[in-house]
Amino acid sequence: MRKDFRYFLVLVRPLFIALGLIMLWIPQSWSSAFDEGKFYYRQQNYSQAVQKLTIASRQDPSNPEVFFALGLAYAQNLQLAQAKSAFEAVLKLTPLASPLGQKAYKNMGIVSRAMMSSQGNGAKANQIAGVLKNTGDNYLGSTINGGKIVHWDMAKMPLLVYVGNGAGVDGWSQDMQASVYNGIREWEAATNYKIRFKQVRDPAQANIKIRWQRNFKHGKVGENPFESMGDTIVRSDVTIATHIDPNGPVLNASEIKQIATHEIGHALGLQGHSPYEGDIMYYMMNPAQSGVPTARDKKTVALLYKIQADVTNNTVGSTAQASLFYDNLKQAEKKAGSSDLQSAIVNYQNALKLKPNSPDLLYNIGVAYSKLKQNDLAISYYRKALTVDPNYTRAKYNLSVHLINQGAEWGNQRRSADAKQAFTEAIQLLEQVERSPNPPQGVQENLQAAQRNLSLVGP
Ligand SMILES: [Zn+2]
Q1: Distance 254 CA to ligand 1 centre (A)
Q2: Fold of the 154-274 domain
Q3: pLDDT of 44-93, one tens digit each?
Q4: What's the pTM?
Q5: CA–centroid distance, residue 11 to ligand 1 (Å)
Q6: Are 311 and 204 in contact (CB under 8 A)?
């Protein structure tokens, strides 16, 4: 049976892997929430432990041990992404070289592998595990989020990049665009020109878009909303600030270049941060950085691109077209969910323009017409879906239902020949559905109804 057409569906598979987390409890005067969290953890009541340790982390936000314990509790509670964030928080509070920093970093790698295994990505998890043994020369384990390998398709280089004009953004000047291009060139050189970029003037053509903003809150200087759906990168939009401090000076050319290089590193698929201060992918700007990718940054990006991507630019059109496609799809699902079916159909049709002959879209339009009781249109869309994909079980099933109903109507109107044809086709379709691996419920009933109707029509 073909897979359900729901890009928002997240399949949660049971997780049968041992985490093998490195435990560490440092006895000291704990705050009570920390104590309680520790108690629940020992009781193996991990959800309670998470609750208490979350409270403890708010009470004592600069205590790395609290975040370490929270990371362990999250991991045992199989909230792996949260576990990874908690271990990452440890590294913001204590040096990587410290015993706690080392343990937190190793656990980040363990959690990354666990996330991959939980996605049925065992072979890649092993690949990562092998890489993580060479500690120190890369940080691949801390840059994989969500258990998936995400990077652009090497066969589709150059990446098309649009660097927006920041005119109107306070402090922006034209030379900031040049700083971004300098950052881009750093990655080209860092990857021995395996990754290449090409400037485009139309954002609708771009894989990566760069825009400008005066400042962010909390001293943040850049942002990289990266979105994927299924196995396709939908958008990779970078925003760069012209100020760190809202009341401070405008960032200079080398700062802008460094920020751009860091954000483009994210855009290339390095989803997390390096725990090593000097790396361009460290989570904040600091004096240990030279402003260009280090040997470790280079090694990490090279390792990432060596592993086959689970999520990539899997689209015939541009990334911008993919995002338009998925935006329409999201809208359609939302509207269909709120029974605004006519509007949903408009969005499905827009999506269909970008992905003509998609059997799933044709099927979904059919379903919307079924719900609107516009039988002729529903039938025609199920037929279109079946023309593209003759094994589309759901389309066959829904089509057969319409045919039975239409046949009944024709039978009552004494249009015997038409009715007979409709029932006969419905029976053929239902017999095929019945033989499919996961036939929907009700096949038998419908089959009997069609056969009974056919006998009523007579010879
Ligand atoms: Zn970052």
Answers
A1: 17
A2: Collagenase (Catalytic Domain) (3.40.390)
A3: 899 999 999 999 999 899 999 999 999 999 999 989 889 999 999 999 99
A4: 0.69
A5: 28
A6: no
